[in-house]
User: What shape does this take?
Amino acid sequence: MRMATMRTPEATFRALLDAACRLQNGDRDQVGKLAALYAEETDVRHPMAPLGDTPMLSREALRQHFAAARTAGLAGFRVEDVRVHHTADPEVVIGEFTYRGDGGWAVPGIIVFRIRDGLIVESRDYIDHLGLARATNTLDALCARLTGA
Assistant: This one.
């Protein structure tokens, strides 16, 4: 077993937040590091995504997702207010956090993870997508896509 797979579920969640923050601040090397936190076969969903949930079912799908991440409008991106809630199932943790950036914007999020052998095998990501669209000045574009305009 690789050393990277020896992380606890909480350590994996914290590594995910750290790498996501670094990626949003322009460190493109984080794409592979983020993808490596997931199992080869995984089930990642965003149930509250305004345009509908498109499950990502593989590490490669996650790699493509992270590679497409943009940094525009996210100056000073950081993660704060991190809380980790442990459950009766040792594989399941709930991560609570707030994305923040320059300009005073804040976007809350909660992710429910199933992490096995240090790798994310399942997650449900509940992010304030509308707040993120406001923070990144993409709300008008999102509204246009929602209304078909």
